[in-house]
From TrEMBL:
Membrane-traversing stretches: 29-59, 80-104, 124-146, 179-203, 223-242
Keywords, ordered alphabetically: Membrane, Transmembrane, Transmembrane helix
Protein name: Uncharacterized protein
Highest taxon above the source species: Bacteria
Length: 243
């Protein structure tokens, strides 16, 4: 699963850099460069692996541009299709991927952190990719699905309008929520993960039931439900990959 791990790293780094420095090309370049460097350090130097690593670097460059285009032109289906095709491709071709090794595996074997002690290099790399996906990439995927379903509509400037402006803090709460769910799931505390999900509903209830928002309550409820379920699917998918 080393190629799938690199795919998640490529998207995670690209989206994270874009959230900090939303400049043209820089996020994609950083994501592509880091993907290639990690692939080489992980010993993915055979011909199939080199082709895959370079292709994943190109994916990072294309992902940043396609996502920006999707938000700018309200064509969210394009980046979602790109994500689906990319993930399906690396999974179908995963049998040709070599296991992670090289200097990265040597470094991992020497780490004295209990959480990393004895961890398989492939699993550790996949864990890093899954963790990165919970951050800005999770927010991007949620926004893309909301846009594709017509639950919200990006403006011509790439921002949000309608109910998206009413619910505050989603860019921070979303990643925190996904990390909590993933962490509780990995530790086997699924009940605690369910409590996090329930707590989100309680925290959002005043906004959804506010008398001042009755004219928007149906749109707000749809926005909340669709966004929440998509957001929860991201860490749950990560748990499936890591199981």
């Amino acid at each position: 699963m080393s190629w799938l791990a690199l795919l998640l790293v490529a998207m995670g780094v690209t989206d994270l850099v874009h959230s900090v420095r939303p400049t043209r090309f820089l996020p994609g370049v950083v994501g592509a460069a880091l993907t290639v460097v990690i692939g080489l350090l992980a010993g993915l130097t055979g011909w199939p692996d080199l082709v895959a690593v370079l292709a994943l670097g190109g994916f990072a460059l294309a992902w940043e541009r396609v996502v920006a285009l999707g938000f700018r032109t309200a064509r969210a289906g394009l980046p979602l299709a790109m994500l689906g095709v990319g993930a399906a491709t690396v999974v179908l071709l995963s049998g040709a991927a070599s296991g992670a090794g090289g200097p990265y595996a040597d470094w991992l074997a020497g780490v004295r952190l209990p959480v990393l002690s004895g961890l398989d290099p492939d699993r550790a790399l996949l864990l890093a990719g899954v963790l990165l996906a919970q951050l800005s990439t999770g927010n991007v995927v949620v926004r893309l699905v909301l846009s594709a379903t017509g639950t919200m509509r990006p403006s011509t400037l790439g921002g949000l309008q309608g109910p998206a402006r009413t619910l505050k803090g989603g860019r921070l709460l979303g990643p925190l929520e996904r990390l909590f769910i993933l962490g509780f799931g990995l530790s086997g505390n699924l009940t605690a993960a369910a409590i996090v999900v329930a707590a989100k509903g309680l925290l959002r209830w005043p906004e959804l039931s506010s008398p001042q928002e009755q004219d928007k309550v149906h749109r707000l409820t749809e926005y909340f439900l669709v966004g929440s379920f998509v957001s929860w699917l991201i860490p749950l998918t990560g748990l499936v990959l890591l199981s």
